[in-house]
Amino acid sequence: MTDTRELVQHTEAINELLARYGVKFGLYKNGTFKEQLFPFDAIPRIISADDFSYLDHGLKQRVTALNCFISDIYGDKKIIRDQVVPEEFVFDSPGYLHQCEGQKPPRGIWSHISGIDLVQALDKSWFILEDNLRVPSGASYPMIARELCRRASPKTFQTNGVVDNRDYASLLRSAMDYVNTGGCTVVLTPGRYNSAYFEHSYLAEKTGAHLVSGSELTVEDGYLWFNGYDGQKEKVGTVYRRISDDYLDPLNFRADSLIGIPHLYDVFRQGHVALMNAPGNGVADDKGIYYFVPKMIRYYLGEEPILNNAPTYLPFYKDDMKYVLDHFDNLVLKDVAEAGGYGVVFGSKMTSQQKTDFIALLKKNPRRFIAQEVIDFLDLDIMDNGKPVARKADLRAYILMGEEPIVWKSGLTRFSRNPDSFIVNSSQGGGFKDTWVLSH
Amino acid sequence: MGIVSLINTDKLFWLGRYSERVYTTIRLFGESFDKIIDGNAEYIELFCRSLDIPNIYSSTEDYVERYLFDPQNPDSVYSNLTRAYDNAMTLREEIGSECISYIQLAIYVMNRHQGSQSPMIGLQQILDDILAFWGLADDMIPDENIRNIIKTGKRVERLDLYARLKRPRTDILREVSRLSVRISRTNLKYSSEDISRLKQLADSATTDYYSILQIVDGLVII
Description:
By secondary structure, chain A is α+β, with helices and mostly antiparallel strands. Chain A has 14 helices and 22 strands.
């Protein structure tokens, strides 16, 4: 039996320490940039060793299949030819990049760090909500929170058999080194006004990488170089990029990008640098593609999926459209192009006019939406004015791909502070918890 | 010595300058504030003139509030501390989270003491935080070049301030000596002739503060 009472008494002190270390995220409100502390609740999410073992197998299976899918899409496209995934869902996806056709990233890895969002239902079964493969963020928060929790309440960690999660930086560094083409490692950030800037800088510090902006890197003679103040330069072997595909290279992607590096993608294409995560992998974290992941697992691995998707419908299919219209009030509808908790609407919360407008939009562009059954999440307790109250929470699990996929024995548990909300995103006022994996 | 980019070199140098500016100007403010307590409001003008900043303050209260805490006043301690913070927070991988935390703490103290009737209490905590930051930088930053770029910024700023304040020759001599030792341990581009000239100026019987200021301001090329 775990006991977190002593730890919870230190909630305020831990939040003060988080503030001291600048654990914040950035937000734009009315055109103005603001930094906010990320509220921490000290009651952890606790995952037993058996439960983690189940998640471990399921997540490795899922990420392996997703990686096979991306390789296939930019290669032979067998899964399309075999009509397992309709081509509309691939080539219309904003994550699909024609520039990546024929591309083989170093060691064949497309998603080096995958952030898979899960929820636990009332019966304690787990469901996958989303696959985040592009630049999933958030691991730094439980990393530093654990460090501070251990300072605040060492006794808690002496007695509860919690697996230490402070190995994330070394796991990440191993993943960086595994694909390194020969040179130093950099974390490429869009800059301090990015919402996840704390994380960029913290992960650079903890992995011993250079934190760089695009202007500090240049392409010369087919290689990428990190330029020093006094004319020295160092070849770059791995770029852990925290900027999106579109902005990576103005000569290959968006021409108006001021934060990218001209010709970076050409260096990658020649195999002279590893970009992690690899450009083009967003084709697999499209909310529309999510529907097909169980099919991918069967197709590529010949296995039954261990972890289930939330029951999902694609209005693109006639039968599914009918189901969605018949059960509209019971479903949550998601715009596949949105992220961060935006573009998510609950049928039951719409006015009649909103419903009419939305259904018209859905019929006009069915590919743009997915519909899911509203899962009754298992609420987690958070402390509110000194009392425990139940709130919706999800779990982002991190899977790092090196020689083998490794599931980090922790994760980011986000919760809604609003009792009536399912939206847990930090940008919408949510907080976070540590995620304990027990050794027993 | 690892490679440090041009951008980070500039930030390290200015982190040193702004942290020193906050430290020394708080101490100077404390001296003038002590005199103002006794009704010597003319010290506000004297303070501003000595630092070569405009005297925009309409009263003693206005001076205390706006010189210390006004984020819109580019000469305020708040503005200088914010600039130190802006540089520090982008240097986490170079100087470490522990070092940055003391600049962050100073910002919190500054925010907490806005409008305080006892400003020196909060300012003392900021001085302590700056001292802790320098101590940690010395102790925890493994890269000698990085450490010395921050310290060079600090020495440049202190000499600049001391020259403006027309400090005694002994102070100037000591600061020139410290700067010349420190800058030689960095990869910063500077003219050794300028350092020699600074030493001559500091050593002469009558100190030419204006020439010292001119050399100091153009000493480091980033």
